[in-house]
Amino acid sequence: MGTVAIAVTEGVMHFELAAACEVFGVDRSDIADPWYEFTVCGPPGARVGGRFRLEPDHGLDRLARAGTVIVPAWADLDAAPPADLLEAVRAAHRAGARVASLCTGAFVLAAAGLLDGRRATTHWLHAAELAARYPRVRVDADVLYVDEGSVLTSAGKAAAMDLCLHLVRLDHGAAVANAVARRLVVPPHRAGGQAQFVPSPMPARRTAHPLAELLSWTLRRLDRPITVEDLARQANMSSRNLARHFHATTGTTPLRWLLAQRIHRAQELLETTDHSIEAIATATGMGTATTLRRHFNRTLGVPPDAYRRTFRSGRPLPGPA
Question: What is the pTM of this model?
């Protein structure tokens, strides 16, 4: 929370820069107050995407005063990142900042040494190059983003928005992140472990894909026990065929996807209602408070009670604008 600073130097890409500016740089205090203090740091006149020139608010040395530092995509992977950028990113991390790269910004973090010994990702087209150039980095090309605590990395383009919303979710909770996503007309939550690239992406028309109606049907019934056999029967498929379609479409298994949806629903209920843990367990199909606590703690690293104390909404969240 607090200050988010984005590092803008000659050669950064505009899409990822714009994604971070849209999430953190627009005043959304009607959704969560206080919102972030956002600042752009870099040399004057830095060219973005080869077309636009920016006038940053501060120099790169200001990164060390931020709570979160965002490093956008780096365009020329054959060129070494500027030494002053690398030192500024290192200084920010030493000072306790949470540092996140978007897309090929991972090459900057790797060059700065922040990814040594850590798991990280980048755009799938460049993952092999990242692994070859920086062998101490554990590159995972199959995920949307990786959260290593104080260092986070995202895959390409749209995954940059996923990581930005993930940061909002960490700071303000799921309900606030979902409200921001509605404003931006983007999916409210795509888990970091979801595959970057699947051969059969979900189409716009709900009836055009064998799983489109099934996913909607399942989300309306999260309070009920649902097995893989139930899902297969509803989709008019065998369990094996369902698993194959599910992995091709979502990058995960039916049960993992179902558990993730139950956890997301529990997060929202913890933030926005006074329901007991037992009642939320029932409403999310977990059955008992013990089961909810076990899965919630395993997935998010905190028990439901602690999550509620941290993110309990003090007022209703606004609808879409």
Answer: 0.72
